Amino acid sequence: MKAGRYISFLFLFLACMAARSQDFHFSGFIPNRTFMNPAAAVMPVSPEFTVTYRNQWPGIPATFVTYGAAFILPVESMKSGLGVNVLNDVQGDGVITRTYVGLSYGYRIDLQRDWQVGAGISASYVFRKLDADELVFRSEILNELGYGYSAVTLENQTRSYPDFAIGMVVQNGYGFSAGISVSHITRPEESLSSQFNSRIPLKYAGFIKTRFGSSSRYSGLSVTFEPSAFYSRQAKNEELIWGMQAVFSSVFAAGAWFRQNLRFNYDAVIFSVGILMEKYNFFYSYDVNLKKLNFLSTKMGAHEVTFLYRMEYKGRKARAVECPAYAMLFK
Question: Which pLDDT does position 148 carry in this prediction?
Answer without folding.
Answer: 59
